[in-house]
Amino acid sequence: MLLLLFAINLDWSKRRLVGIFAVLGLLLFAAFFNGSVTPSFAAEPLKPVFGNGRIHVRLYSDYFCGPCSKLDPEIARPISDLVKKNAIRVTFVDTPVHQHTTLYARYFLYALNERKDIDHANRVRHALFQAAALNITDREKLEEHLKKSGIKFKVYDPTPTFSFLTGCLTEDKVSSTPTAVILDSGRKQVVKGPANIARAIGELK
Fold first, then answer.
1. I want to staple 64 with a disulfide (CB 3.0 to 4.6 A). Which of 83, 98, 104, 134 is the partner?
2. Is residue 26 scored above 60 in pLDDT?
């Protein structure tokens, strides 16, 4: 019913690009959402957000994206250092461009549910990028790969987290990976491409 109401009220006369992003957000929400739309007053959902800095960086990537895979090890340490200095707050948004990315996104969150800190998050992302490079698309094989990499995980219902991430995707209208959205004192900067993102991260203090 929620999805039907969204579709009915969508202004299809707006620019085509806006419509495309709205539909993508709708489809992403449908793919991730398995629960009830009844309001819940449960605890705050697990979010892949780290740090308390004034500057907020939302990093959009896909584990099966070649440029994302090359960028990840280049920015992992700088991001970790900035988070620990409380210079930035970073949100990792797994963007399901590839058909198997949703599976990987689930296990990233499962691993954070076991342990949530920036260094662990970077290790998990590195292991998942390795798994994608090996073209692992089976759940059992992915679990085996993570265990061999020393990554523990705790399964939970990530529906609220996926809803949060869908909101980020809809708000920032991300159409490609890797993309970084940098929010600082009301200003919003969208940076695309590995070289530009690495440079933008390096300039943050």
1. 98
2. no
Q: Is the pLDDT of residue 32 over 50?
A: no
pLDDT (tens digit per residue) in 98-149 = 999 999 999 999 999 999 999 999 999 999 999 999 999 999 999 999 999 9
Q: Counting every residue, how long is the chain?
A: 205
Residue 127, Ramachandran bin (φ over 0: left; ψ between -120 and 50: alpha; else beta): alpha
Q: DSSP code of 46?
A: P
pLDDT tens track for 64-80: 999 999 999 999 999 99
The CATH class, in words, for 49-202 is alpha beta
As to burial, measured by CB atoms within 10 angstroms (0-12 exposed, 13-18 middle, 19+ buried), residue 47 is middle
Q: Which helix (H) or strand (E) holds 170?
A: helix 159-172
Spans of all domains in the chain: 2-32, 49-202
Contact 88, 204 (CB under 8 A): yes
Q: How far is residue 30's CA from residue 201's CA, in Å, rounded to a whole number?
A: 33
∠ CA(152), CA(160), CA(181), 5° rounding? 85
Give the pairing of strands 88-94 and 49-50.
antiparallel
Q: What is the DSSP letter of 131?
A: H
Give pairs for 85-88: CB < 8 Å, separation 24+: 85/53, 86/51, 86/52, 86/53, 87/51, 87/53, 87/54, 87/55, 87/204, 87/205, 88/51, 88/53, 88/54, 88/55, 88/56, 88/57, 88/204
Per mean pLDDT, which range of 43-47, 54-58, 126-130, 182-186 is the poorest? 43-47
